[in-house]
Structure formats: structure tokens, C-alpha cells
Amino acid sequence: MTATAMLEEDRLDETFAALANSTRRAILARLAQSDATVNELAAPFAMQLPAISKHIKVLERAGFIVRSRNAQFRPCRLAPDRLAEVATWADQYRSIWDDRFDRLDQQLSRRRRAAQPTAPKGTNDR
Amino acid sequence: MTATAMLEEDRLDETFAALANSTRRAILARLAQSDATVNELAAPFAMQLPAISKHIKVLERAGFIVRSRNAQFRPCRLAPDRLAEVATWADQYRSIWDDRFDRLDQQLSRRRRAAQPTAPKGTNDR
DNA sequence: GTTGTAGTTTCCTCCTAGGTTAATTATCCA
DNA sequence: TGGATAATTAACCTAGGAGGAAACTACAAC
């Protein structure tokens, strides 16, 4: 068993926990534009550098970003796997929300048809 | 401004925080099969009822489930909006992971071709 | 009424997350 | 060598999450 053994469920915990913070999501959004250093990533935030450094560490541990070295710099790059994992997880439920939205849509259509024939003017429900 | 005004970012915090727990994700998976009461949802877990009740409250506040009343029962039903929101959020990054996976794929192909120097010109793996 | 079932709330403990400041490491450059 | 820049680590604080136990509310059935 490797040192980095991790249950699927535990990794999903870490994945979603990493996303449950707007600063970290903003960092990911920034990295979607291009790779960036810690200072570049920190610039938009009213927050000390160590705080950003910790956020980056969380994202790195969760596997959302990978880092290299260039002199004093530690540039960050987006890694695709965790993002794809989130999309795949949500997609499990696609049939459900498609169904529910369809049903809602049908209800609205029925209501619209019911309202239509006898609706001369201004008889809008709600 | 409504009483339930909430910034998009704050709601995403709540959305992802709700998902960052395997018990809660399991509850969602169970509800994908059918609606269920609190006791039914609690059955698979080695955990006291109050703990489950709290998890349900978290999911409800986050908007993942809606509840009705039926005598003493408070059946839970999956609500589609937050799940769709997660899928939409992840989908923002689809181009990125498509690109990266493609590039990785190309690199592997080049390496494969380099490893087969005897392959005639124009031969393509895959 | 009383009793039983379903679920929630309160209070407690333990632990972690997010932020601060100050100190420390690593690397370049003059 | 010594100083500037980039980033991390350490020490600390506060707030909140996850769980348990016990008490409580709500409804039904007898």
C-alpha cells in the first residue's frame, strides 16, 4: 500500500472542501487564464500573503493545481483531473434534474394552456 | 431586496461545503433513488439520529433537498437546482481539461512514435 | 388522557479552517 | 559577501463543523 493511498470518498471530501471557499475558487478562475506565481495570485485579495499561501497549499493537496520551481518563484498551474472529477460527480445526477425540470416545464405549459383560452387581458397568474 | 438575499459566491461556498462530507453525499445518492424519511436516510449509517438530522438540515439550507410534512414524517426530496449549479460551475473549466488531456495525449503519441523508429513514414498509432 | 413513534434542539467536547504577525528559507543580483 | 525579492513556516487566535447524550416537540393511536 502506497503512502498516498486515499479512499475515493475521502478524496471527494477534500475536493469539495477545497472548493468551498470563494478565495480558492477565484484562484482557480485566475489560473484558468494562465499560470501565475503566488504574488500574482495574491494581488487581487485584501489578505496577507501567508493566507494565500495556505489556500494554494489546500488547492495543491487536493490536486487542483501543480507547482514547479523557477528561481525564487513557485508558479502554479491548473491541473485538470479534480475539475473533471467534479463534473463527473455532478453529471451522475443529470437525469434527475433533467426529469424534474421537464416536469416543471410541463406543469407550466399546462398552466399556460389553461390560462390562454379565457385570458382576454391582464389576467396573469401572479 | 428579499429576505433570502445571498451573494452568488456565498451560495457556492454553502453548496460546496454541503458536498464536502461523505455522509451528506451518500444521503443525496440515496435520495436519487426515491424520496425518504429521516429514519430511512439514517438507517445505513453508524451514527445517531441527531447527527443525520443535522446533515439533512445542512443539505436543506444549501438547497439540495426540500421537505414536506406527512403526520410525524418529514420526507426529503432531492431538489435539482444546486446539483445543476455544480455541473455548470465545473463545466466552465471543460475547455481547460479537454485541452490539457489532448495535449497529454499528443505527447504520449509522439513518445510512442519515437519509441518505434522502425515504423514507416505516415504510420499512425490509434 | 397515556403511550409510542418521528424528528429536532440544546449543550457539550474535540478538532480543523481561516486569518493575523513575526520569523525563516531560498534564490538572485550587485 | 550582503541585501532584495519570493514564498513558506511558526505561533497564535477565533469561529464553526461534526459527533454524542439527553431533553424536548409533534403527531397518532388507543
- Whole-number average pLDDT of chain A? 87
**What structural class is derived from the secondary structure elements of chain A?**
mainly alpha
Determine the oligomeric state from the structure. Answer: homodimer
CATH homologous superfamily title of chain A: Winged helix-like DNA-binding domain superfamily/Winged helix DNA-binding domain
Protein chain pair with the most extensive contact, residues per chain: A-B, 33 and 33 residues
The CATH topology of chain A is: Arc Repressor Mutant, subunit A
Q: Which ranges of chain A are low-confidence, i.e. pLDDT below 50, for 5 or more consecutive residues? A: 118-126
Query: What's the helix-strand series of chain A?
Result: HHHHEEHH
Whole-number radius of gyration of chain A? Answer: 23 Å
Count of distinct structural domains of chain A: 1
Outline of chain A? elongated
What is the number of helical segments of chain A per DSSP (H or I, 4+ residues)? 6
